[in-house]
């Protein structure tokens, strides 16, 4: 399965890196392909290293402005013109999407994927690995949107929140 992962390109505390490393190991051991932003930096690099070490395949989708941060050991590396094209390629190559901790770029990516899914422009599973309750605020906001009629589809059809790496992967493989 091609699993697109959105996550931070920054180096983070072990409370965030340990679950990401575990998720990477599981992806590789289960024979999945990581489709990611193609960077060697921060959590992205840690994820790619872990998947590769565990026997998984790597497909990086990078962008010209970040060409200096590309991961050299990818099985395939695609360079896009801009961030919009990058996001489109990340979704197009995905059988499923997983969201790990991240900043504004990650938030932008997940909200775009949810907006497209809301309009039935894809029906790929979207799973948030909610490490240390990092996405509790997002979850609360989405639940409010659902409860108050802002979503045309039930929230449970759009996204799943997982407490740990094994639960995230189990949901995708089910």
Structure description:
The chain is α/β, with parallel strands linked by helices. It is 45% helix and 18% strand. The chain is built from seven helices and seven strands, in the order βαβαββαβαβααβα. The chain has helices spanning 14-29, 42-53, 83-92, 104-118, 136-147, 155-158, 165-173, and strands at 2-6, 33-36, 57-63, 76-80, 96-99, 126-129, 160-162. It has a seven-stranded parallel sheet, sandwiched between helices. Helix 1 (14-29) runs parallel beside helix 2 (42-53) and helix 1 packs parallel to helix 7. The longest helix has 16 residues, at 14-29. It is globular and about 45 Å long. The chain starts with a strand and ends with a helix. The relative contact order is 0.17. The model has no long low-confidence stretch (mean pLDDT 97).
Number of helical runs? 7
Q: Give the rounded overall mean pLDDT.
A: 97
- Uncertain runs are none
Overall number of strands: 7
Give the neighbour order of strands across the main sheet. Answer: 4-3-2-1-5-6-7
Q: Give the % helix.
A: 40-55%
Order of helices and strands: EHEHEEHEHEHHEH
Strand residue content: 15-25%
Sheet with most strands = 7 strands, parallel
- Structural shape: globular
The end-to-end span amounts to 12 Å
């Amino acid at each position: 399965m091609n699993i697109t992962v959105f996550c931070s390109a920054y180096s983070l505390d072990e409370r965030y890196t340990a679950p990401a490393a575990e998720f990477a190991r599981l992806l590789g051991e289960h024979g999945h392909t990581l489709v990611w932003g193609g960077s060697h930096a921060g959590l992205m690099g840690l994820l790619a290293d872990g998947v590769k070490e565990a026997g998984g395949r790597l497909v990086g989708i990078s962008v010209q402005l970040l060409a200096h941060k590309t991961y050299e050991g990818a099985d395939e590396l695609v360079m896009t013109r801009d961030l919009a094209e990058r996001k489109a390629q990340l979704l197009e190559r995905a059988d499923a999407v997983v969201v790990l901790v991240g900043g504004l770029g990650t938030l932008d990516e997940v909200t775009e994927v949810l907006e497209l899914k809301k309009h039935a422009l894809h029906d790929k599973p979207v799973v948030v690995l909610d490490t240390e309750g990092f996405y509790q605020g997002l979850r609360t906001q989405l639940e409010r949107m659902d409860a108050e009629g802002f979503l045309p589809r039930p929230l449970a059809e759009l996204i799943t929140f997982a407490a740990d790496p094994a639960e995230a992967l189990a949901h995708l493989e089910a």
